[in-house]
Write a structure and sequence with these properties.
The complex is a heterodimer of chains A (122) and B (319). With 122 residues, chain A is mostly helical. Chain A is 56% helix and 11% strand. Chain A has two domains: 6-68, Arc Repressor Mutant, subunit A (Orthogonal Bundle), CATH 1.10.10.10; 86-121, no CATH class. In chain A, helix 1 (6-17) packs across helix 3 and helix 2 crosses helix 3. The longest helix of chain A has 19 residues, at 103-121. Chain A starts with 5 loop residues before the first helix and ends with a helix. Chain B folds into two domains: 1-87 and 284-319; 107-250, no CATH class. In chain B, 76% of the residues lie in helices and 5% in strands. Chain B has a four-stranded mixed β-sheet, with helices on both faces. In chain B, a hairpin with a 6-residue loop joins strand 1 and strand 2 (144-147). In chain B, helix 8 packs antiparallel against helix 9 (212-236). The longest helix of chain B is centred in the middle third of the chain and has 46 residues, at 89-134. Classes of the chains: A mainly alpha (122), B mainly alpha (319). Chains A and B meet through helix 1, helix 4, strand 3 and helix 5 of A and helix 5, strand 1, strand 3, helix 7 and helix 8 of B.
Amino acid sequence: MRGFGDLETVIMHMVWDHDGPVTVRDLFDELRQERPIAYTTVMSTMDNLHRKGWLDRAKEGKAYRYTATASREEYSARLMREALAGGGDTEMVLSHFVAEMDGADSEVLRTVVRRLAGRRSE
Amino acid sequence: MSAALLVFGYGLVVAWCLPALLTRLTAAGFSARLGLAAWLAAMVSVLAAVLAAIQYLITAAVEGWPQLAEAVCRSVAGGACTTVVYRSAVFELGLGLAAAAAALTLGVLAWRYGRSLQREQRRTRAHAEAARITGRRLPGGGAAVVLDAAQPAAYCVPGRPAAIVLTSAALAVLDPGQLTAVLAHERAHLAGRHHLLIALTRGLAATFPGVPLFTRAPAEVARLAEMCADDAAARHSSRPALITALLAMGTGTAVPAAALAATGGAVAARVQRLLDPAPRARHARNRLALVTVIVLLALVSGLVTRYAGPLAARGFALG
């Protein structure tokens, strides 16, 4: 099924889907329903996510209560800003399927679309 | 000294004269992969020539330090340069310092080059990881994830592991066949390690500003890499699927009247190439020209670096 690194993804999405803060126990109980998993695996993964800045935590009694540092939407927006920044060239190597186009470029494409539409209707 | 000049001269000729020819030969992208190979061969050839020239220079300097000192001294001071001057410790120290400065400059350039590559790699990997954690997994899409965004976009991020990112808006405008084409295109980038080619070429351009071959290469390599990925995607899905995917991702809604003339726009060139494949004969001629360039580059740079020493020695003997 999913690889080990994917557990971070699964856990983040679970945290985002929860309304309030969650404990390791909460997520472990949920995860156990779908797959055999050890409590310590969930704990160390959440610890990793905390260390990487994805999760905030506050001690409550004996256990930590975890919350996401930003919503899924905020992370998506941040990634898109990074990916679509015009000058992003110098900082990262992303291969966009369609690059930013200048006016003439998109003009040509629109003409092609029209030509194809015309051909189809003939 | 003169062997170094010979090799260096060869490097200069390639760096200044070849870009125009290569741009012309690869403009239409008939054989994108060969075009890519030709650009890379030219860059490797120039770098090898520069390194060989430096090596000849060092060998000559070590072998004939006094003569070199005299030659440099005479070229600077002319008749005023007597044995006493160029044998003086101060003068030798000066030359030594110059050599040290040159070595230091090279070292700094190499270090800056390495650091910028490293920084780029770190940021790219972080982006790939963040995309993997934030995105929804695309069913049947392998490493592909979907981010919610209003703008249609699709891109790949190298990393450990790499990620292919699609926005929800992109999914909305693509049909299944087009989606297959887009994914195949991005996978071809990752499989061909195009990001590495582009990063290395950009680094060279930043390290050697003003050298036409290096300053022009990043855009050309990126363009040809896109065309290589297009070829792979067309093979994997179909030409029409890829073309319509490009159009769907690239256009808005309005369709103003305009002539279908070549504009030099990168995306338009890709679409036109796929729409109107070149006649076979032209294709073959172009291939042949590119292969000739690559073979000549390998042959001439090999010969020049290998025989510059003996050649220069013979030149001295004759003169």
